Sequence to fold (554 residues):
Amino acid sequence: MIKSLHISNYALISCIDIDLSAGLNIITGETGAGKSVMLGALGLLLGGRADMRAVRDSGRKSVIEAQAIVKDVAGIDRIFEENALDKASDGMCILRRELLPGGRSRAFINDTPVTLQVLKSVALRLIDIHSQHQNLLLADPDYQLSIIDSLAENSDLRARYTEAYTAYRRTLKAYTDMRELLRRSAADAEYIQYQLEQLDKMELRPGEQEELEHEREILANATAIKHHLRSALGPMADDQFNAISALAEAAVHCRALGDVLDDGEELAARIESARIEIQDIAESLSDIDSRVQADPSMLDAVEERLGALYSLEVKHHVENVDALIALRDSLRSKLAAIEGGDESLAELEMQARKAKKTAMLLARELSDTRRAAAMDFAEELTLRATPLGMKNLRCEIAFNAGKLTPAGLDIIEFRFAFNKNQQPLPIGGTASGGEISRLMLTIKSIVAERMALPTIIFDEVDTGVSGDVASRMADMMLGLSDRLQVVAITHLPAVAARGVAHFRVYKQDTDQSTETHISRLSEPERQRELALMLSGDPDNEAALAAARSLLAKL
Fold:
């Protein structure tokens, strides 16, 4: 359950701190005082979208923090272990969401940074918020199905079905894709064959284009290249007086000085080394010269080959020969697929049928758990709702089998009759606002008990009711609070008087702004608050007497 709640710098809230009690907590206040703002802030801990426009002072961070008892809450230990989170020895857990200047958001559990998904997974096991607009969901088939699933205790089965359904859809897509490919490819097989023959005829090889372009550059400039090569070779090796001969002669003379000069031999060796290096360079130049041929026919052949390659690249919208090779291989694979397509298609069809059978078996098993849960739910709903002024209530949950969907085969519909002479009909066209409110309170009480949620928050779930029915709804909330923590935001005195703790939300003006505050009411303050709710005047003696009478029933 929630021990405390802290909200700062959020909408009209500068800073509030609330210490909640076990049992039934009541929150009252005038319309617009900020009750919904508090729920909006709490919703951020449940993974709600962060709207930075709600930050009161954009230069400071907004903080929403709840301290909760998580001891013995189903699934919490596993989440803590999977995310390496420390768990306090006293079973306390601090959930925090921060909205930072600049639009960023951070989440923490016990001061350890976590992803928003992890924060949400923990918070949803601790808190359920029922707001007024959720009453509209009661007519939604998906919401109705979620109610039944929450009571059927079939989460493991649903996980296995989801896995099987995903596998079925994957294999079905592979089958349909292959079938469509074969349909299109069969008509294109002749053209694919023609393209492949063109590419095969070219005998393409990796890197060929770059080599040819380099060779073309040399052939196109062969005359100039050979002129420079020979001009370089002449003074080095070919002329009558060349560097190699001169260096050889210089080395001879240096050796002759060996008896006279101490370093004559060393100088001769250095000259010889230079001669050998120049001779090696001359041989390299000569080798290049022999390979460079000013042959117009060779240039024409290279240009023709490159022209053919460029033409294919333009035709197939690719940039180089490597891409042409990849296309050739792809066309060959497509042609092979077409030729062996019937066999592959049959294999994929068999896999899809097998996957569908597996998913269908699990879907039917899932339906069985839902039908059993629906029968019990309808009986319990009728039993619990009857004291809320619906003594003639009848509830039926109709099941229809549809196609396989991510949720299974079931299309369900809640049908209600509120009078003896009425056939059960879909709730959207037969229930009043007050009847829907009572049904939702009953449903929420059933679900919360079955799921063992520590805390449930009702946001004006009693809208549209009054008198004895309001008292009975208050009794239901009070009975529910024996097993879990209940927070009820209400405008009904009969409900407000049942709480073990009563909080009042109010607005207060400062010189600069209007701020929302919340305070826990003492007994005299509760009397005045109830008198205000009853008569509009907190000092009305008759209303105060009625308030004391309501509080005395607690």
In short: The longest strand covers residues 394-405.
